[in-house]
């Protein structure tokens, strides 16, 4: 608290006037004219005109004009004056220009301390971003009480947040100590958000490129479909699982029946380093879009591995597929036969046709 008070005193001592203006003595027998103070709630240009009229006898004395005009400022206007950069005003013309141009914007952003109670940590906002936003809003409030700011900061946190519980246990703390206490929680929060984003990125499949118009020959198109790229998405029917296939790999990668794939073909320097495949152990595509892992996973399911990850509606489809594979296919065998002439065999033409029909097809 004492450190904050010292900083406030130092800030006030740093005058916006240059040394030349500061050291200039007032004229002898100078009497301060009667000028209505400007508190920030009236017309600033009207106040400036009234001041110039009252000081018309001393308008050539820039240093005196600057100092007397600063003395007419009260309340919020005086707070604004002490926010100006050190030694930034060298004459009254500069002072008047800064006053008319910058003070209206300062008055717009200036808020009451109660405004801090409107700030809340958003669900998708990190603790560090909430801290940064809270500090920025507090900076716009002149003379903000630390205890009030502390209460507003705690109120803006979700009640289930660990920092909220810590602040509730130890409520009597300065705001500076609260910000120091929040730092490790902000680091932990950032790690959680980064892990969540990485998981969502891995779960999200790559959008397939739009199909080109029929300018390729059917033969070339069939060849392209029959040999998909290793890293791209493969069109086809795969078993439906209850969890993403990259999570399945994480659980079964050390099993003896999981076969590692050969290295990816192509130039490694041309691959997308933002995408990583845990099955290949290389960059270039996501695990969820790895054709090699998809095909190997289908083989494992047929060998009764990884069945606990299969969706319920897909179990019956697998059974029907396996049953169809076990049934022998019916084939029609054509046998060419040579029969004797009907006159030599003693058969009539009708009987001969019937014999031919029976001997020609055997199912």
From TrEMBL:
Region of interest: Disordered: 199-237
**Which intervals hold domain Retrotransposon gag?**
67-158
What InterPro entries does its record include?
Retrotrans_gag_dom
Instruction: Spell out the Pfam families in the cross-references.
Output: Retrotrans_gag (PF03732)
- Where is the sequence biased in composition, kind Basic and acidic residues? 214-227
User: Where do Polar residues bias regions lie?
Assistant: 199-213
What's the name of the protein? Uncharacterized protein LOC110760480
Give the organism, scientific name.
Answer: Prunus avium (Cherry)
